[in-house]
Amino acid sequence: MKKSLTALAIALFLGNAVSAQKVEFEEYTLDNGLHVVLHQDKSAPVVVTSVMYHVGAKDENPERTGFAHFFEHLLFEGTENIQRGEWFKIVTANGGQNNANTSDDRTYYYEVFPSNNLELAIWMESDRLLQPVINQIGVDTQNEVVKEEKRLRVDNQPYGNMFTEVKRNLFKKHPYRWAPIGSMEHLDAATLEEFKAFNKKFYVPNNAVLVIAGDIDYKQTKDLVQKYFGNIKKGAKVERVNIQEDPITKPIVAEYQDPNIQLPMYITAYRTPSNKTRDARVLDMISSILSGGKSSRLHKKIVDDKKMALQVAAFSQGQEDYGMYIILGIPMQGFTRDQIQAEIDAEIKDLQTNLISERDYQKLQNEFENSYVNSNSDLESLAENLATYYLLYGDINLINEEINIYRSITREEIREVAKKYLQPNSRLLLDYVPVKEEAAN
């Protein structure tokens, strides 16, 4: 009885914590198509101003990959009103910080300022959208910056090409088949006119969402948004091509030799559905069962008990059109791919055959409740989540309601989704290995 009361107390505590995390917001759309989301939080005199554009690596010409990521850098070069090299100086001088990032599906820019600089942040983002300076000096400068980033984060980073190789082998038609950083040869070959055309097509108000979160007054903020963004002209509608992959009907076997590593990594990967689907969320739960912490099945069995691997991980990489489910292991010396794979497959088979225990199910639910509470715990994450749910999921209310989807997932669904997607005949087996001696010589 005592244990039951304790469990009830924990459940009530989590329920109260989750309900306390409800995110209140206002949203509306300007005449030019820019969607605006406002969230008020007066707990600190800080405001986050962000713009997410619905353009990522998947929107690129296959002969001009890397454009979306390139623009993540290029649009800090300056505007008609902000001289070249002055963007970061202005932000810093006014007590702020800023950054940007790119994925296969979107590009995201944000500033964090003391709330008395809200108008400055709104003006800067509007000017970046309205009149960026795109010239040859900026293109040449950022080309070198991107090349250095690729050398540092990909080419010279141990296992730096892991995602690139998984994507290249899992996708044959869809533009997810290349990495967001793209090809340096493509960027070198691109003309200034091509960069300007990319900007004109994708960096338009009707292809973006503006999120302002923090210590704001709603009326004042709406007036400022109208003042700086309202007169920007609407762009042509972005037409998107829905490219479907053929099903994988037999294992894809591949190898990649990385000169930066000494230990191999054995990767098993599956193509999975869009992150909008219920099944994608079930796969998130399966990832937690298999490798969510040191008590997870794969870690306990392969790393702790049998000491076959230094590291093992399983995770679902959700994306707008498709996802990837990846399991990887770095073996201890003397253990082969087949031995590691056999242990992984045994755990997957158990998930496909047997229901997880009620105890494990409750632990899983608690993990996702805790993750949900933490996901919006800081203002920067909350602003990005609001933008993401609106732009990529098509339902901004998921910021409050998605946890209910996870709560409703059953043990039976976990078993059936494991059966549906984690099949031996529909996966990639990638041996990510050190450079072989004969290849090095």
TrEMBL record:
Record-linked InterPro entries: Metalloenz_LuxS/M16, Pept_M16_N, Peptidase_M16, Peptidase_M16_C
Swiss-Prot/TrEMBL keywords: Hydrolase, Metalloprotease, Protease, Signal, Zinc
Protein name listed in UniProt: Pitrilysin family protein
Superkingdom in the source lineage: Bacteria
Signal peptide: 1-20
Naturally occurring in which organism (per UniProt): Paenimyroides ceti
Family: Belongs to the peptidase M16 family.
A Pfam entry, by short name: Peptidase_M16
Record flagged with keyword ATP-binding: no
Residues covered by the Peptidase M16 C-terminal domain: 190-366
Domain (Peptidase M16 N-terminal): residue spans on this chain: 36-174
